[in-house]
């Protein structure tokens, strides 16, 4: 398993950040610039560049990641919410350590 990347912001937050939840190789943190009353980020503890790399995940790890996203939303009291992954610069990705946005606490319309 590759180690943390020294130059990766989210590898640093995996080590030193405030974790809302951590289990099973995944952590949830609060987004520093929330776009909704609840805006969480779920990331794998190990460094993974983008969602594209999920194509090579062992199926069991991919399943555990999805379950962690859903459990994080549920434990945060959300029933209705939006899950977003931005993939690559053209997809709006700005931090190149895979993360899932969980957005909720307001009606989610067209805007992110
Ligand atoms: P992306 O644009 O890559 O999909 O999402 C990156 C997210 O990381 C943005 O929503 C941004 O607000 C969040 N972010 C950037 N820097 C930090 C930070 O230092 N701490 C936290 N908790 N979130 C951050
Ligand atoms: Zn990283």
Quick one: overall form?
globular
Q: How much of the polypeptide forms β-strand, as a percent range?
A: 15-25%
Number of strands: 5
Give the count of helical stretches.
Answer: 2
Mean pLDDT: 95
- Using the coordinates above, name the CATH class: Alpha Beta
Query: What number of structural domains do the residues give?
Result: 1
| Share of helix, binned | 10-25%
| Strand arrangement, major sheet | 1-2-3-5-4
How would you spell out the order of helices and strands? HEEEHEE
Helix- and strand-based class? Answer: alpha+beta
Unique ligands: guanosine-5'-monophosphate, zinc ion
CATH superfamily membership: HIT-like
Notes on the protein architecture:
The protein is 22% helix and 21% strand. The termini are far apart. It is built from two helices and five strands. The protein has a five-stranded antiparallel beta sheet with strand order 1-2-3-5-4, sandwiched between helices. It is an alpha+beta fold and 112 residues long. It is globular and about 40 Å long. The protein has helices at residues 9-16, 59-75, and strands at 21-23, 26-30, 38-44, 81-84, 100-104. Strand 1 and strand 2 form a beta hairpin. The mean pLDDT is 95. It has a single domain (9-104), classed as HIT-like (HIT family, subunit A). 21% of the residues are buried. The structure holds guanosine-5'-monophosphate (5GP) and zinc ion (ZN). Zinc ion (ZN) is lined by residues 5, 8, 10-11, 47, 97.
């Amino acid at each position: 398993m590759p180690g943390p990347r020294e130059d990766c912001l989210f590898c640093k937050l995996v080590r030193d950040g405030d974790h809302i939840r951590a289990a099973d190789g995944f952590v949830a943190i609060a987004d520093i610039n929330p776009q909704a009353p609840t805006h969480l980020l779920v990331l794998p503890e190990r460094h993974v560049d983008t969602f594209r790399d999920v194509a090579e995940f062992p199926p069991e790890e991919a399943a555990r990641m999805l379950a962690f996203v859903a459990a994080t939303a549920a434990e945060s009291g959300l029933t209705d919410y939006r899950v977003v992954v931005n993939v690559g610069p053209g997809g709006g990705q700005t931090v190149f350590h895979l993360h899932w946005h969980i957005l909720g606490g307001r009606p989610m319309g067209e805007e992110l």
